[in-house]
C-alpha cells in the first residue's frame, strides 16, 4: 500500500519538534547540530528572535490580501533588494522553481516584444538544478530528473559545465539567454571561476543574449557577499533568488534590470501568494540582517575558521575525504567513500549534513552559526570519519 505521504523522498528516520540557532531537537528530545539549515534555507538559524517577532507581529495583523492591491511589505522588500543589488525591479514568488519559470518567461518575452520572436532558446550547464517544474527540469536537462516526464518543453540546450568554447559555438540569433548557478548546489558545490563568469558575461553581451544567474542556493550571504556574482564583479540581467531569503518562510524572487524586464507588462505574469504580507515581512528582516557589511564580514570570518578545520579534517582522513570545496558557508566535502555513508555516520554523531551530486557532502550551516558550534561540528565530523574507518 502506498504511503499516505507520496513516497518521493527517502527520508531519514528523524522528526524534529523545535529548533534554536544551529540546533534541532527531535520529538524524542535528542539534540542534533544542523549543518544543512534545511538546504541553505534557515540562513539565520532556527527560531531567530527577530524573525519570530516579525512573523508573529504580521500574523496578528494581516496574512493575505491579493496582488490586486498594493502590498506595503512587498514594496519595502523590493526597494531593499533594488538598493542592494544590480536589479531595478523584483517579482516575488513562493519558491525557487517559480522563480525559474518567470526567468524563462521574462527572457523569452523580452525578445518577443522586441520583435525577435525566434529568440527562444536558453542554454544551461550540466549538473545544474533549477527546480522541479516541467520547465525547470527541461532547462536543467538532467537525465535523472526528466525521465518519464516527457515530452519536454522545447528550446533548451545543456552544455558541459563551464565549457566556454562550447558556449561560444552554440551562441546564435535564436539564443535568448544563458543560465548558470555561480556555485552549483545540488550539483555538488561546483563553482565556476570568476574568469569563467566574466567570460560568460562577455559572450552573452557579444551575442545580445541575456545572462540569468540562479542564486537560489548560493545567494543571500552564503558566499560572504550578498550575492555570489559580486565576487566575480559581474552582474546578471535576471537573477533567481529563494531559499535563504525567507529564512524558512516560503519566499522567492526574480530580480532583473529594467532592460531585461521590459517585456513584462501588466497582465503578463502573476501569483496568488507571491509577495504576500507574511513572507515579505520576514524577507525584509532577513535581507536587512544579511546585507549588513558587518554581518557579511562575520560570515567570512566564520568561513575561514570552518575551512581551516575542514582542511585538517581532510588531511587526517585521506581515505574518507578528497577535498574541501566552495566558499563562504556554502562548502562541500568531496568524499572517497560513498557520501551517503558519510551523511549516515554524521547522523550517528547527531550531526546533520546534506548529500549532493559528484559524491559530495554539503555543509550549509546557518550564516550566524556560533564559533563554538563550528568547533563542535568539526569534532563530530572527525568522529564520523573515524567511525567509517573502523
Ligand atoms: C533549491 C533550488 C531551486 C528550486 O527551489 P525550490 O524552492 O525548491 O523550488 C532552484 N535552483 C537552485 C540552485 C536550488 O538550489
TrEMBL record:
Give the enzyme's EC designation: 2.6.1.11
What does the entry list under GO cellular component? cytoplasm
Q: Which cofactor does it need?
A: pyridoxal 5'-phosphate
* Note accompanying the cofactor annotation: Binds 1 pyridoxal phosphate per subunit.
UniProt entry tagged with the keyword Transferase: yes
Q: Which family does it belong to?
A: Belongs to the class-III pyridoxal-phosphate-dependent aminotransferase family. ArgD subfamily.
Q: What is the additional note? A: May also have succinyldiaminopimelate aminotransferase activity, thus carrying out the corresponding step in lysine biosynthesis.
Q: What is this protein called?
A: Acetylornithine aminotransferase
Q: Which organism is it from?
A: Falsigemmobacter intermedius
Amino acid at each position: 500500500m502506498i504511503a499516505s505521504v507520496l513516497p518521493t523522498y527517502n527520508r531519514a528516520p528523524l522528526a524534529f519538534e523545535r529548533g534554536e540557532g544551529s540546533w534541532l531537537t527531535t520529538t524524542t528530545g535528542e539534540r542534533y547540530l544542523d549543518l544543512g539549515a534545511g538546504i541553505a534555507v534557515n540562513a539565520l538559524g532556527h527560531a531567530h528572535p527577530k524573525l519570530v517577532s516579525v512573523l508573529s507581529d504580521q500574523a496578528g495583523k494581516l496574512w493575505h490580501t491579493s496582488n490586486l492591491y498594493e502590498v506595503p511589505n512587498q514594496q519595502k522588500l523590493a526597494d531593499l533588494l533594488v538598493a542592494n543589488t544590480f536589479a531595478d525591479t523584483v517579482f516575488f514568488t513562493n519558491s525557487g522553481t517559480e522563480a525559474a519559470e518567470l526567468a524563462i518567461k521574462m527572457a523569452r518575452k523580452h525578445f518577443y516584444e522586441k520583435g525577435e520572436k525566434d529568440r527562444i532558446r536558453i542554454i544551461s550547464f550540466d549538473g545544474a538544478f533549477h527546480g522541479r517544474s516541467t520547465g525547470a527540469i527541461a532547462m536543467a536537462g538532467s537525465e535523472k530528473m526528466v525521465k518519464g516526464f516527457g515530452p519536454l518543453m522545447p528550446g533548451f540546450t545543456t552544455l558541459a559545465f563551464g565549457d566556454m568554447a562550447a558556449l561560444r559555438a552554440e551562441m546564435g540569433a535564436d539564443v535568448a539567454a544563458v543560465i548558470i548557478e555561480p556555485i552549483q548546489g545540488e550539483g555538488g558545490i561546483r563553482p565556476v571561476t570568476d574568469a569563467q563568469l566574466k567570460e560568460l558575461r562577455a559572450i552573452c553581451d557579444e551575442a545580445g543574449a541575456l545572462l540569468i544567474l540562479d542564486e537560489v542556493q548560493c545567494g543571500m550571504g552564503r558566499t560572504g557577499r550578498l550575492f555570489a556574482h559580486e565576487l566575480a564583479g559581474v552582474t546578471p540581467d535576471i537573477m533567481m533568488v529563494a531559499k535563504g531569503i525567507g529564512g524558512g518562510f516560503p519566499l522567492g524572487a526574480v530580480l532583473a534590470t529594467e532592460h531585461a524586464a521590459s517585456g513584462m507588462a501588466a497582465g503578463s505574469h502573476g501569483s496568488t501568494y507571491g509577495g504576500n504580507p507574511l513572507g515579505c515581512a520576514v524577507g525584509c528582516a532577513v535581507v536587512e540582517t544579511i546585507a549588513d557589511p558587518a554581518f557579511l564580514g562575520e560570515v567570512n570570518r566564520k568561513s575561514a575558521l570552518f575551512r581551516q578545520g575542514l582542511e585538517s579534517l581532510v588531511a587526517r582522513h585521506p581515505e574518507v575525504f578528497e577535498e574541501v570545496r566552495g566558499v563562504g558557508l556554502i562548502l562541500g566535502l568531496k568524499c572517497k567513500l560513498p557520501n551517503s555513508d558519510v551523511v549516515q555516520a554524521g547522523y550517528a554523531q547527531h550531526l546533520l549534513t546534506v548529500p549532493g551530486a559528484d559524491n559530495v557532502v554539503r555543509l550549509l550551516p546557518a550564516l550566524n552559526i556560533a564559533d563554538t558550534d563550528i568547533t563542535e561540528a568539526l569534532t563530530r565530523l572527525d568522529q564520523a570519519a573515524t567511525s567509517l574507518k573502523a
